[in-house]
Specification:
The structure is a single chain. This protein has 995 residues and is of the alpha+beta class. Among the domains are: 222 residues, P-loop containing nucleotide triphosphate hydrolases (Rossmann fold); 185 residues, Alpha-Beta Plaits (2-Layer Sandwich), CATH 3.30.70.1620. The chain is built from 23 helices and 26 strands. The strands form 7 sheets. Strands 2-1-4-5-6-7 form a 6-stranded antiparallel sheet. A hairpin with a 2-residue loop joins β6 and β7. α3 crosses α20, α5 packs antiparallel against α6 and α5 packs antiparallel against α19. This is Chromosome partition protein Smc. Required for chromosome condensation and partitioning. Belongs to the SMC family.
Length: 995
């Protein structure tokens, strides 16, 4: 049988040059002197087939297999051997080609070996598996050397059985058994480990179960308490929202009333000021009239006295003319002086009166401006208060919104330049007709602040930004990943025909075309109807499959739940949105600041006008006082002049006032005085009437003053009460807002709910607050009685239980694996026993024939040293050469031992043929006759086996089909030549090389 067709070697040991051996015959001889490199051919085959032991290759390390250089040839960097096999008989069952090339290359620099099968790189294990199929393994009979023969013959029975193990093909079984034993060891180790873990977990479970049950009980109680708390918080939040709205309205109304009443009081005070001013003038005028009245009375009395004197004079004729002249001149002089003074006072009064008129005109102008600026200041204050209320509402709303789980939307929009793919909030993108706003508002809910992104990657970056910056949370809607499921077409046709159908929500909202998927996602499964009745009827007809909302805000939810009631303005998020667009907090603050500046300017002008007005009043009063003083002086001078004129007239008969002589001849002095007295009495009566009129007017004015004072007092009391009430309302509002913020914060942080969410969720009403409080106390006591718990205990127990169950299952599985491995090992042992026993029996059957051919007679047989343990028994050989009875192999000669070994080895080869056998000077110890028998006996096996025989024996060379001569013409470098079968020439060649 031709199996190995070619060997190619380069750089391997002494093969410095590329060397090729082509094998075309079954029995090949390799001849040459010792040291020429014959055995390197055998080593090259073993090395190429994966031999790892450098000792077996007659070296100390792998570098020794690389050509080390010679005098004329440098050392090689690598060694490479290629074996070419004929695979037409499928000896390599795993390789489906007729020719199989196996190559091994060792690189001295990298110290790595590379393996190739048919040019494709492979692993050492692949090569070793191929070697198993050829039988060329360390313990097989495929390579038989002189050392192998002597070792086998002299080996102990236990060592000798290795060849039979190899012949029986037990290597693969041993390999499988070794792998199974390793796996079993690991499995046993795992079994122990898993069992230990299971035991540990089993001990932990009861404790953790107790903790978990305690935690579960605590959890149930705390959840019930939280449910009650949530109900109370939600109820309080909604109630507080209503109360806050009511308090804000009340505060706003009180502010308006307070402002209005304060304005009324100011107007009344202005009227009082005017009244006081007029009353002062009236008092002054009455005082002046009374003075004039008194003077007239005195004048009348004086005239009456004069009249009596005149009448007495007329009766007296003894008048001293000289004395009268002196008196007359003195009176005239005094009269002239006082006349001058009188004219001066009159001029002064005229000047004062002109000043008074001018001051009063200026006062009226300033007072009008004062009132105008006062009114403007009040209007500014009122406008500022309104804006302040609006700002407070917005800030409250903002504080409330900041507690919204979706408050991150503003942060996203504010940082639009830093992020990518932001389309906008849903609220900024959609547009809804007014008649649909309430219904759409209820559907939109928190989605108003959802942020639309172009892609999921953009959304992810936005969420990561909020997380890293701790800016709240956001509901992100990436356009590229939204997968809505709108109402199906067949259902849509049915719904459209329903009474009261208004439209599908996603068709009643407008948005940019590329964002339509957002509408379908939010509104795609909701229907709008005219009223609640239409909604309930439609819900029943479609089996409550979709959500339905009426135009007035009543909802029929999927699966039949309902939500509804009154709808306030805040529920219309689109209306609120418009307000927010018109009045954002920053704009209001700016406007308030502007109004503050205007108010300060107005107030400054107002204060300036007030000072001017007060100064004018003081000036007018001063001028009036000056006029009164001057008029009083004039009256005194007038009276004095009249008295002087009367006295002068009495003396001279001339009237100084009228610059005419007394008409004594027309009428007597007494008659004139009587007429003047009558005139003065008339004037006195007129003054009395005027004083009475002024007094009456003053009384009315005083009554009005008292009335205004009373009204103002009452108004001030009301104003103070309202201010107190306003202060209380503001205090209540602050407390309520603070409490409400805490409640909303608790709802947001504890339950992830916003005020809008609460409006959408139906909470059970607390029917009996007393029972609820009692239940809260009970739960609190029960929670305290439970004591400290770890809420992780439930999960820890579940994980431990899951882990325990896993290890129980795993333990069973590993135990099953161990049982299977034990079964596999048992079956392998059975198979190895069977195969081993079969090979021994077969060899025993073939051994007598081989023994007789090699010994030319005699008998031999194999025996077990331990028949009871086939797997561990050794193999002994019982031989009887012709004419001898041997009890111990050691009693045989060296040649006889070799023949015994060869008999056994060839018997094995006969029953288990190998495709290739290498005989490396195996026949060296034999004498020529036995060598010839040996060589001829080898020839009997060439039909099934190819032989490569390294030899220097003639009998062997004569029986080979072809001979290769191995020489070393250059020291250290092997050269191979093919030789003709001329024994004499071969001998000469060998002897020549020996020399």
């Amino acid at each position: 049988m031709l199996f190995l067709r070619q060997i190619r070697a380069v750089g391997f040991k002494s093969f410095a040059e590329p060397t090729t051996l082509n094998f075309t015959k079954e029995m090949i001889g390799v001849v040459g002197p010792n040291g020429s490199g014959k055995s390197n051919i055998t080593d090259s085959i073993r090395w190429a087939l994966g031999e790892q032991s450098t000792k077996s290759l007659r070296g100390s390390n792998m570098d020794d297999i690389v050509f080390s250089g010679s005098v004329d040839k440098p050392a090689a960097d690598f060694a490479e051997v290629t074996l070419v096999f004929d695979n037409q008989r499928d000896i390599f069952s795993t390789i489906k080609t007729d020719i199989v090339e196996i190559t091994r290359r060792f690189n001295k620099k990298t110290r790595n070996s590379d393996f190739f099968i048919n040019g494709e790189k492979c692993k050492l294990r692949d090569i070793q598996d191929v070697a198993l199929e050829t039988g060329l393994t360390k313990s097989s009979i495929a390579i038989i050397s002189q050392g192998t023969i002597s070792t086998f013959a002299e080996a102990k029975p236990d060592a000798r059985r290795e060849i039979f193990d190899e012949a029986a093909g037990l290597a693969k079984y041993k390999k499988r058994k070794l792998e199974a034993l390793k796996q079993l060891a690991k499995t046993t180790e795992n079994l122990t480990r898993i069992s230990d873990i299971k035991t540990t977990l089993e001990k932990r479970l009861p404790r953790e179960k107790e903790k978990a049950e305690k935690a579960a009980k605590y959890k149930d109680k705390i959840e019930e308490l939280q449910k009650i708390e949530l109900t109370i918080l939600a109820s309080d939040a909604l109630r507080f929202e209503t109360e806050l709205s009511s308090l804000r309205d009340k505060r706003r109304q009180l502010d308006i009333e307070v402002q209005k009443l304060a304005n009324d009081i100011n107007l009344s005070q202005d009227e009082l000021d005017v009244i006081l001013f007029k009353t002062g003038d009236a008092d002054k005028e009455i005082t002046q009239l009374n003075l004039n009245f008194q003077k007239i009375v005195e004048r009348i009395a004086n005239l009456k006295a004069q009249k009596q004197q005149v009448e007495a004079r007329e009766n007296s004729q003894n008048v001293n003319e000289n004395v009268d002249d002196i008196k007359a001149r003195a009176i005239k002089k005094e009269f002239d002086e006082k006349s001058i003074s009188l004219n001066s006072e009159k001029d002064l009064v005229s000047s004062f009166e002109r000043q008074e008129i001018d001051l009063k005109r200026r006062y009226d102008e300033v007072n009008d401006q004062f009132k105008t600026f006062h009114m403007q200041s009040q209007e500014i204050e009122s406008e500022k208060n309104k804006l302040q209320y609006r700002l407070e509402e917005l800030e409250h709303k903002q504080n409330t919104n900041n507690l919204n789980p979706m408050s991150g939307a503003k942060a996203i929009i504010d940082n639009e330049k830093r992020l990518s793919g932001i389309v906008g909030t849903v609220g900024s993108l959609i547009d809804v007709k007014e008649e649909h706003q309430i219904a759409i508002s209820l559907i939109t809910g928190n989605h108003l602040q959802s942020v639309v992104f172009k892609t999921s990657e953009d959304a992810k970056k936005g969420i990561e930004f909020l997380k890293n910056q701790r800016l709240g949370r956001v509901n992100a809607l990436p356009i590229d990943t939204l997968n809505p499921s709108p109402i199906a077409g067949s259902q849509r046709d049915l719904i459209k025909r329903a009474p009261g159908f208004v439209g599908f929500a996603n068709e009643l909202v407008e948005i940019e075309e590329n964002c339509q998927v957002v509408l379908d996602y939010i509104y795609g499964t909701t229907i709008i109807t005219r009223n609640f009745d239409d909604a309930t009827r439609l819900g029943k007809s479609i089996n409550f499959r979709y959500g339905i909302v009426s135009l007035d805000g009543q909802r029929v939810l999927p699966r039949g739940a309902m939500s509804g009631g009154s709808v306030n303005k805040a529920s219309n998020i689109f209306a609120a949105k418009k307000v927010d667009e018109s009045f954002d907090s920053e704009a209001i603050k700016t406007k308030i600041t502007t109004l503050d500046k205007i108010f300060v300017e107005k107030q400054k002008t107002f204060n300036d006008l007030k000072e001017v007005r007060e100064k004018l009043i003081d000036d007018i009063n001063q001028i009036a006082s000056n006029i009164r003083i001057s008029k009083n002086s004039i009256n005194i001078l007038d009276s004095s002049l009249i008295d002087l004129s009367d006295n002068y007239k009495i003396i001279t008969g001339k009237d100084l006032l009228n610059n005419q002589a007394s008409s004594s001849f027309d009428e007597s002095e007494s008659i004139r005085l009587a007429r003047e007295i009558a005139k003065l009495e008339t004037e006195r009566n007129e003054i009395s009437i005027k004083v009475n009129g002024l007094s009456e007017s003053k009384t009315k004015t005083t009554d009005r003053q008292h009335e205004l004072n009373k009204e103002n007092k009452e108004k001030r009391e009301i104003l103070n009460n309202w201010k107190d009430e306003l202060a209380n309302v503001k205090s209540d509002l602050n407390i309520l807002e603070s409490t409400n913020i805490q409640i909303l914060k608790r709802l947001s942080e504890g339950y992830n709910l916003s005020l809008d969410s609460i409006r959408e969720i139906h909470f059970d009403e607390i029917e009996n607050p007393e029972e609820t409080r009692t239940r809260i106390q009970e739960l609190t006591i029960e929670l305290k009685s439970i004591g400290e718990v770890s809420m992780d205990a439930i999960q820890e127990y579940e994980e431990t239980k899951k882990e325990f169950d896993y290890y129980v299952t795993n333990l069973n599985e590993v135990q099953e694996s161990a049982d299977k491995l034990n079964e596999i090992i048992l079956n392998i042992d059975i198979e190895m026993k069977t195969q081993f026993k079969r090979i021994v029996d077969d060899v025993n059957a073939a051994l007598p024939e081989a023994f007789q051919k090699l010994f030319n007679g005699g008998t031999a047989r194999l025996i077990y040293t331990n028949p009871d343990d086939i797997l561990e028994t050794g193999i002994d050989i019982e031989v009887n050469p012709p004419g001898k009875k041997i009890t111990n192999l050691n009693l045989l000669s060296g040649g006889e031992k070799s023949l015994v070994a060869l008999s056994v080895l060839f018997s094995i080869l006969k029953v288990r043929p190998l495709p290739l056998v290498i005989l490396d000077e195996a026949e060296a110890p034999l004498d020529p006759a036995n060598v010839t028998r040996f060589a001829r006996y080898v020839r009997d096996f060439v039909e099934n086996t190819q032989f490569i025989i390294v030899t220097h024996r003639e009998g062997t060379m004569e029986n080979c089909d072809i001979l290769y001569g191995v020489t070393m013409e250059t020291k250290g470098i092997t050269k191979i030549v093919q030789l003709a079968l001329d024994i004499d020439k071969i001998k000469k060649l060998i002897n020549k090389n020996k020399k």
